[in-house]
Amino acid sequence: MEKRxxxxxxxxxxxxxxxxxVKHAEADANGFAxxxxxxxxxxxxxxxSGKATKTTINSQVRQHVKALTKEDxxxxxxxxxxxxxxxxxxxxxxxxxxxxxxxxSIKLKELLEMCGKSACKRIALFLDSCESGITDVPGIRGxxxxxxxxxxxxxxxxxxxRTCFASCKTSESSYSSDALKHGVWTxxxxxxxxxxARAALEGGRYVTAFSLQNYLAAEIQRTLRKVFSKPVSxxxxxxxxxxQDFVIADLDDVLKKKTAVKPGYDQVKRAFLQLEESVEIRxxxxxxxxxxxxxxxxxxxxxSFVQDISQxxxxxxxxxxxxxxxxxxxxxxxxxxxxxxxIVTPDFEFWVECAQDSEDPASAVISHRLTNISPKIIxxxxxxxVFESSFDDITFEFKTEVDVADLIDQLEELxxxxxxxxxxxxxxxxxxxxxGSKLEIRISATGVTIHAPEATAPKKLVQSFIxxxxxxxxxxxQKAIAGSSxx
Length: 487
Fold this sequence. Notes:
Elements: E1 4-10, H1 25-36, E2 43-48, H2 54-65, E3 73-79, E4 82-85, E5 88-91, H3 101-104, E6 106-107, H4 108-116, E7 122-128, E8 140-141, H5 150-156, E9 162-166, E10 174-177, E11 182-183, H6 184-193, E12 206-208, H7 209-227, E13 237-240, E14 247-250, H8 252-259, E15 271-280, H9 300-309, H10 311-328, E16 337-339, E17 342-344, E18 349-356, E19 363-371, H11 381-386, E20 391-397, H12 404-414, E21 419-422, E22 429-434, E23 440-444, E24 447-456, H13 458-471, H14 476-484
Helix pairs in contact: 1-6, 6-7
């Protein structure tokens, strides 16, 4: 059976303080190794900071690669400072001495030759060290001179299944981000290997050398624009044979788990159901013709006026719903708390409110809302009879706000033929239409709302919410919902 071996090297802090620390290098290494496990069983060798001495790196690489067979896979990840001198590339080690750089660092060619002597045919190097000299620009990882591309080309062009991903061209710098807590390039490599970037997949399941590089080429620039206020440039680079595409990881199992929508209703705990009705203010019970005038504008005074004259509608609605709950559900009197416009039960809360319409001052909006819904109650016949035709909206609130503009970009990149998007120039929201569905879907920074064509029972509305998740399986929308639902 084939073996997958990852040798993960990261030098974040150096023994000699004259060499600048490499921010987030260890987080990059740990994140990379964890993400790579999504492609299957993985043997890991970690050499981080103090353990990444020149002697230890050489020894560990030599020992482990010589045991590999032609069926195995070898992944080497390095995050740290790199430099070039006299046409040779070097990676620095924990014990690199700035006064004796060449002899206390590892010549990349020798490291690659160790790997080349192995029977292993499939070798992928992830190199976050092709950087320019130290500068005052925050976030740059760099040391001394630019690295040479010749040695990388020579080794990785020599075989069909050898490939090297470099964080940038030899004339550029590689950036890290405190907001991401990673190097920008490695962060996106991790996203791809975790199955979080459909654009990085070939055939909907494989991360290949080409698909990963194409994704990185597009995504790195977009990420840099987000995390840096000033324009910076970083061009991910790929070395290797172009005759065969190298499958880095098969994410089929992981993607199936990610896109699965649980049949239960646990997510409903973060959702609420709602129906809004517009009525003329003059039609409210407390409006006295001849004494009251219909507002022509909206103010705190008119808002209070509308609330005062709508009290009978609120009371009547609460009384009616209370009666239906008593008729169809087995709650005792002490199980329910009834207040103005509000009913609290062990499994849900019902609210009814009336407010002046902000768009039409002469009208009022009566809102009926169901919140704090227990998942176990969704299938209850009595519960659905109480609210048989009561709601036409279900809103799911995200735990943390999402970037709607970024979400739109990702949805457009998916190029799903059965989903249409519509959004304003400011990207304050995004409307989705799914082919064959009458549901209206709106996504904002705070949540997603699904509007049904007519008022229906809670169970049917919740099922429509689940159907939308299934239709958008694997999309940023479903991920946001799933992420918000974790306990």
